[in-house]
Every structure is written in C-alpha cells, then in structure tokens.
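Suppose you are handed a protein chain with no further information: no name, no annotation, nothing but its sequence. What can you learn? This example shows the usual starting point.
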Amino acid sequence: MKPKFLIGIDEAGRGPLAGPVAVGVFCVRSKKVLKMFKGVRDSKKLTENQREAFFLNIKEAKKNGHVHYAVSFSSAGIIDKKGIVPAIKSALNRSLRRIDLSTQDRPALKILLDGSLKAPSRYMNQKTIIGGDDIEPVISLASICAKVLRDRKMTRLAQKYPHYGFEVHKGYGTKAHYKAIRKYGLSKEHRRSFLKGIKKSTEV
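A reasonable first move is to predict its three-dimensional structure. Written in structure tokens, the prediction is:
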C-alpha cells in the first residue's frame, strides 16, 4: 500500500541544563507539499530568524490544510524523574496522538525519525535516519517546529527566572549559564540529574 501520509519526527533540547525537551511531529499527505518549504534544513543550521520565517510558513500551510504538526514537551522534573530517553518517548507519543490520525490510517503512514528516535511499535512503517534532520525535509520541518516552540518557551521562562539568561542560551551549558548557577543556585527549571555537582540549597 502506498503511504497516504508522510510524517517526520525530531526533538529539540536533549542536551540543555534547564527547561523541557520538545518533540515535533510534522505530517503531509504528499511529498509535493514539501516544495512549499524550499531550502529547509536541520533547525540547528538555520538562524533564529530563518527558523521563525519557516515556522510562519508552516502555520499558514496548516491553516490552509496542507500540513499538520504538533509539538509536545516533557519538563525538567519529568526528565529528572524518568530520564531523558523516557521523557522524549513520552513527548513523542503525545505529539503523535495530537496529530489525530485514526487507527485505520496507521497502515497508510510512513514515519521518518531523526537520530535514535523510534515511534511506538504499532506504527509499522517507520525508519530512523542518522542525520535525517538535514537530509529529509519532513524531519527538518519537525525539527523547526520543536526548536522554535521550545525556544519561545525558554524566552518566557526567562521572565520568571531573569538571573540565568534563558532567553540567550535557551538552557544550554554556556559559561554564562554555569556562572549564574554558581551564583544563584538551581531554579525549578534546572535538570538536577544533569547538574549533580551543583549545590541545591540556594534555589530561586
């Protein structure tokens, strides 16, 4: 059976010291739709302005019924409690459910995933591709959705926790971020399992 739906899946925020991890799922009915996003590539190789421009096009395409996407998050607390891999799996499953394809559509799906990601076993036609976010446009678009929405969430968190510069480094382990942690301690958005050597008594 020729797939009726092509889905790309990628995550953003696996490595930061703070904030959630995000998983994006991007769905099209035809590869022809991907021509609307000329020049798309791995979100990490695009500037913030380029990502935002692509995301604006994605939202317009969704509004017109050409594409569907969903992004789900697992918090720092979930990452600490369950581990990063289960946290990503949880967000991935929730994003797939939000795409809202019926059970009868599953045989008509083809799912392409980046890196080490895997969809639930009930999705039979799936393929994990190393570096897929840079060579498969449908994965690149999932990557952009995840990255843009996670970055926006970190910018909002910066207003709540202004000491750390989340709006700049988005939770990654920069020198400035480590310096802020040493000075102010850990916030509720920090991944304690990633920062076991940091004192926890000076939370803000």
